[in-house]
Write a structure and sequence with these properties.
This protein has 560 residues and is of the alpha/beta class. The protein is built from 13 helices and 27 strands. The strands form 7 sheets. A 7-stranded mixed beta sheet has the order 12-25-26-27-23-24-13, covered by helices on one side. Strands 21-18-19-20-14-17-22 form a 7-stranded mixed beta sheet, with no helix packed on it. The protein has a 4-stranded antiparallel beta sheet with strand order 4-5-6-7. Helix 2 packs across helix 11, helix 7 crosses helix 8 and helix 11 packs across helix 12. 39% of the residues are buried. The structure holds adenosine-5'-triphosphate and magnesium ion. Adenosine-5'-triphosphate binds next to helix 2 and strand 8.
Length: 560
């Protein structure tokens, strides 16, 4: 998992359908697509769909996956989102090759298909108000009723649609609708809208159009135009499938993709609806779409997630039709497994207090040898400077500590990682009684952290040499919400359950000097602390900022 090679995903019910379609000769070449609407940034839920669709293209011979921007709603869509989506798909390790498309590429064809529907007497221009359209639609228990405009002549419909297209009507004045059945039990079939008037320029087509196609029409027809063999989508579109089939049957499109639905990914302690993500970003509840606490791919990248970990997670959760909420710990375990393999180790003190070795010569310094990875000798050794004054974690000292506390307390001997055995002798306190310095003596015969007489110490702690260390800010991240399913919170707003401690910023951390040299992409394990990497936005050469990607163990499980 650690390198770039991608293991073929486990099979699933969709791959089994594809296998059968290849076997029976129904298809020779499989074509899937990932069709994001460029109205926000991608999140881990999208990654599930990306891994599924692009994964199929990767694993089947002569297969392809298209990246198609579903850009039919110019009011909400931005080039910023298009660029971010492309970057995220590539970062995840996938390549659309030649197959970059936009629904707007097909605006002419979609319009021609709409005219064809009118000519087949399968579409009409309706002029009811939005309110009346809603009233005429009926509901789950009541049939709808026909609009008085339903029987306009074909010529009149064509003329009206052309005028709509050319901007001769106000928004909301007319609507092109499919002529299906206002009494259909499936409400999606009660004469759904095909085109609406919108006087708005489009990033790709400028102001050529004053009407834009509705998702349900554009989506299935675009799939057919591209010759998609399997249109994979989430379960909520199951009820739309009869409509898609109706459009494609009426239009006799050159291809008729098979739609297969699967359950969307839900993760606990976070939200994934684009509306809510927009709200969090625009309301400055988070620092931006790439806030390291968000489940967005740009946020996860900044946090330090690896693409391999996300692909592994997607493969582990599999693809089924069952809706459920996956625990964040499943994602974090995929992450830990990858980081454990790829991350070299280093020493860093997050809450420093001085340790002074009283019997170590004042001006002396020496280089000790640090092991970069316990299981990967190819990562080699590094020099770790040692001197009289060190920093250790404040909580690695305890006054009147119990027997089981294997770290510093007066009279107790502890191993300093890669260095010496040190016995704590006394501490210095300020006027408030807070410990400001820990003092100890070292045994020169324990260099490298081994004693020659075979005497053992139970505890090993990390440290850095005070004069060699580099200062850094470290950001510790936790769940963004305090409850598992914030989106379902009944009382009040889901934002009420934002975790006030979702980020804790430590300003005066002391790091092993070698960490100042790490690249922005480098993930490191701070021994005993977790996995960290520099913050790609805020970290500067003389003002290092590290993010905690994930702790070493799942501390949340205990918190309950
Ligand atoms: P919206 O349609 O509300 O803007 P969306 O999350 O559906 O939001 P799209 O850009 O339409 O966003 O999604 C692109 C693709 O990603 C769709 O095919 C959709 O099925 C898939 N997708 C989105 N969210 C998830 C999820 N949580 N799990 C799996 N697939 C998802
Ligand atoms: Mg969608």
């Amino acid at each position: 998992m650690s390198d770039n090679s991608q293991e073929p995903a486990a099979t699933n019910f969709i791959r089994q359908i594809i296998d059968a379609d290849l076997e029976s000769g129904k298809h020779q070449k499989i074509i899937t697509r990932f069709p994001p609407e460029p109205n926000g940034y991608l999140h881990i839920g999208h990654a599930k769909s990306i891994c599924l669709n692009f994964g199929i293209a990767q694993d089947y011979p002569a297969a392809a996956c298209h990246l198609r921007f579903d850009d039919t709603n110019p009011g909400k869509e931005k080039t910023e989102y298009i660029d971010a989506i492309k970057q995220d798909v590539q970062w995840l390790g996938f390549d659309w090759g030649e197959n970059l498309h936009h629904t707007s590429d097909y605006f002419d064809q979609l319009y021609a298909y709409a005219i064809q529907l009118i000519k087949q007497d399968k579409a009409y221009v309706d002029s009811l108000s939005a309110e009346d359209i809603r009233l005429y639609r009926g509901n789950l228990t009541e049939a709808g009723k026909d609009s008085p405009f339903r029987n306009r002549s074909i010529d009149e419909n064509i003329e009206l649609l052309e005028k709509m297209k050319n901007g001769q009507f106000a928004e909301g004045e007319h609507l092109l609708r499919a002529k299906i059945d206002m009494a259909a039990p499936n409400i999606n079939l009660r004469d759904p809208a095909i085109y609406r008037i919108k006087h708005m320029a489009h990033p790709m087509t400028g102001d050529s159009w004053h009407i834009y196609p509705m998702y349900d029409f554009a989506h299935c027809v675009s799939d057919a135009i591209e010759g998609i063999t399997h249109s994979l989508c989430t379960l909520e579109f199951e009820d739309h499938r009869p409509l898609y089939d109706w459009f494609l049957d009426q239009l006799q499109t050159p291809a008729h993709p098979q739609q297969i639905e699967f359950s969307r990914l839900n993760l606990d302690y976070t939200v994934m609806s684009k509306r809510k993500l927009h709200e969090l970003v625009e309301g400055a509840y988070v620092s931006g779409w790439n806030d390291p606490r968000l489940p967005t791919l740009s946020g996860m990248r900044r946090r330090g997630y690896t693409p391999a970990a996300i692909r592994d997670f997607c493969s582990r959760i599999g693809v089924t039709k069952k809706d459920n909420i996956v625990e964040m710990s499943v994602l974090e375990n995929s992450l830990r497994e990858d980081l454990n393999v790829i991350a070299p180790r280093a020493l860093a003190v997050l809450d420093p207090i001085k340790l002074i070795i009283d019997n170590y010569p004042d001006e002396q310094e020496e280089m000790l040898s640090g092991i970069n990875h316990p299981n990967d000798p190819t990562m080699g050794l590094r020099d770790v400077p040692f001197a009289k004054e060190l920093y250790i974690e404040r909580d690695d000292y305890m006054e009147d500590a119990p027997k089981k506390f294997f770290r510093f307390t007066e009279g107790r001997e502890v191993r300093l990682r890669f260095a010496y055995y040190v016995t704590c002798t006394h501490v210095v306190k300020d006027t408030n009684g807070n410990v400001t310095e820990v003092h100890g003596t070292y045994d020169p015969d324990t260099r490298g952290g081994k004693s020659e007489d075979g005497r053992k110490v139970k505890g090993t702690i990390h440290w850095v040499s005070a004069k060699h260390a580099v200062a850094a800010e470290v950001r510790l991240y936790d769940r963004l919400f305090t409850i598992a399913d914030p989106a379902a919170a009944k009382e009040g707003d889901y934002k009420d359950s934002l975790n006030p401690d979702s980020v804790v910023t430590l300003k005066n951390c002391q790091l092993e000097a070698s960490l100042a040299q790490t690249s922005l992409e480098q993930r490191v394990q701070f021994e005993r602390q977790g996995y960290f990497c520099q913050d790609s936005i805020d970290s500067k050469l003389n003002a290092l900022v590290f993010n905690r990607i994930v702790s070493l163990r799942d501390s949340w499980a205990k918190k309950g």
